[in-house]
Fold:
Amino acid sequence: MDTTPLLQEVDSLEATVIIDNELDPMSPAAPDTVHLSGQIGSIAVRPDSKISGRGDAIYELRMGNICCAAHGLSILITATKGDKKHSVLFDAGPEEDAWERNVQRLRPDLASVEVIQLSHWHRDHSGGLLRAIRMIKDAKRAQGISDNLVVDLHPDRPVYRGIALPQQIVSLEADPTFEEISQTGAVIEENDETHTILDDMFLVSGGIPRVTPYETGLKGAVRFDSESGEWYSDELIADERFLAVNVKDKGLVVFTGCSHGGVVNATKHAMKHMPENTLLHCVVGGFHLATSDDMQVQKTVADLKRLDPAVLMPGHCSGWRSKFAIEKAMPGTLVPCTVGTSITF
Structure:
């Protein structure tokens, strides 16, 4: 029997993409999907972009206010229900300088962040974590509020992860350690089971059941055993967890880190935690199809179509082929998850 607390409906949801592989500050969203802000038009008319002495021109579009893409993911997610508002940082991108640079350009309210959830232990999601914690705590202190900050982590942190190629193994950079995270002053909460946080407005999954025959994990993934000095298979990436929010009159919005376990598996598992009549509104984040063959892309898109989302926002490791296939199969549902945009549901 599922004992997970019931995920509460929220009145509105906003997500600001701090890190993603793709930059596109110009393309509009498809009609009747989401509202996008933070694109080049709004960047151009910021108060600090005002100029004089150029005739009728009173603003200057400054390139230094446009975010930069990086291989990874980080999304600041804010949910509002009545007079309550809560914010979660979902992942922290690949490296500290990229995260700080884009935050300085986006200027989000870092002091509002109460929880950081790491989707899984891979450096392109954890690399900016330590600086993100420090900057969030600094922002809280600057506003004279408590600098309490929780970091929600899966307890199974590999020493190193890597990819086994035909002739050699390539090691990934290590994720921050529990000790390094604790030294920032953040409070670590280790979770490998599904749970809700922040007045039950966010659901954080546990392990994602593998129910599709074609979503089999990350091919060639290995992890290092420091005691034996050997690498062994780690293709399931079993520590990956998604984040979900139920938006009133819309439905469930699911945020995925990489979908190593499969974006269809993740979405189906998210929907199982909801009442039977709940609609799937949107899936945002990594679909991990960039290196998949055409058969897996087509099967994934076909199963996503059966789940009947109103919007799909593939980003990070999704790849252009999957976006093309989604737009072809479900015209009008695609809104790429690009860095620098704020999405309002």
Q: What stands out?
A: Residues 129-142 form the longest helix (14 residues).
